[in-house]
Design goal:
The protein contains seven helices and no strands. The radius of gyration is 31 Å and the shape is elongated. By secondary structure, the protein is mainly α.
Length: 168
């Protein structure tokens, strides 16, 4: 048993533990017919081995995902100067765009961003909860449109400044 499990898993200690698990299952739930014991053991051995491999693979995937998350966090802990300038510029653009929206649209979007439920947003805005989904979708659409206009205006003003500096 342990040799077959070792061939399957590639880990001697795990194979011995898994063989013990197979025998415990045999003890707790023996097959109905004694002559089928060999086939039963082989089937259980295979299932236990594959379960172990799946568990080990998902554990590795989880470890890799967690390692990547920590690496991204540590990189994000000290952003470069360029990244910080871009981030500040984007925050400034979003603030300007939000101020161009109506009070209701701005409040609805900010409340959703803070994690309020649709019902809570409706209560705060004094509207029917059934329309909150539509209200948010339309507010988001207006935000995107105004954000695009704001970016275009910023690009044009930077282009004007660049042309003045180069003499064109």
């Amino acid at each position: 048993m342990a040799r077959k499990l070792y061939a399957l898993t590639g880990d001697r200690a795990a194979a011995e533990d898994l063989a013990q698990e197979v025998f415990l299952r045999l003890y707790r739930n023996p097959p109905e017919r004694l002559e089928a014991c060999g086939a039963w053991l082989h089937r259980v051995l295979t299932r236990v081995g594959y379960d172990y491999l799946r568990q080990r693979a998902s554990g590795k995937a989880l470890l890799e995902k967690e390692t990547a998350r920590i690496a991204a966090w540590s990189e994000g802990a000290a952003p470069s100067g360029e990244t910080e300038v871009i981030r500040e510029w984007e925050i400034d653009v979003v603030r300007r765009v939000l101020h161009k929206l109506s009070d209701r649209d701005r409040s609805a979007l900010l409340l959703r961003e803070e994690g309020y439920s649709y019902e809570e947003i409706a209560r705060r805005l004094g509207v029917n909860p059934k329309i909150i989904g539509t209200l948010l979708a339309r507010a988001e659409e207006r935000l995107k449109k105004k954000y695009g206009q704001e970016e275009d205006a910023s690009d044009e003003s930077r282009g004007q400044t660049g042309r003045r500096e180069t003499g064109f």
